Amino acid sequence: MLTAIITIAVLATLFGLILGYSAIRFRVEGDPIADQIDALLPQTQCGQCSFAGCRPYAEAIAAGEAEINRCPPGGETTMIALAELLGRDPVPLEDEEAAEKPKSVAYIVEEECIGCTLCIQACPVDAIMGAAKQMHSVIIEECTGCELCIPPCPVECIHMHPLEATPQTWKWPFPVPAVSEASA
Questions:
Q1: Model-level pTM?
Q2: Average pLDDT over residues 125-139
Q3: Residues 143 and 117 grouped into a single domain
Q4: CATH number for the domain harbouring residue 159
Q5: Which of 106, 151, 110 is nearest to 125 (CA)?
Q6: Is the dihedral of CA 125, 111, 160, 167 positive or negative?
Q7: What is the CATH number of the domain that holds 47?
Q8: How far apart are alpha carbons 42 and 76 in whole angstroms?
């Protein structure tokens, strides 16, 4: 019995050392420009830019395969921040109508909801909760306002409500620089 425990401990240590060495030796560095671009994007994962989410869009921008003006949720503020980061000229937003809309969240009229779950399947951030043949509800804190849940709803019980600007919902569009102790 003691021999089996010692053998397993030695094997576990050996495999741990091999995995640790492999993690260091074969480490793949991410693209730092793509990381910076991704940090500027709103992280709505809405797909309005025709990419599956913010990270694929950031990687496409970094590779020069996509323009910086395809993010309606980020709007002009994000486009200008991307232009400054990449040293490009600002360009008009691709979908200016969508970018000019105020920030909003989905609202489900619960009395009209039939529980079809099509909105749950369409939501890229899992902001809708409910079950089949049961009423659904939107988690306001999670909703990004992408409107992807509206088209699949067969009874049109989902509406967009403008998000009230409060200190909790307001977000600074750029990273706030750290204040050094010398300037403080």
A1: 0.57
A2: 89
A3: yes
A4: 3.30.70.20
A5: 106
A6: negative
A7: 1.10.15.40
A8: 12
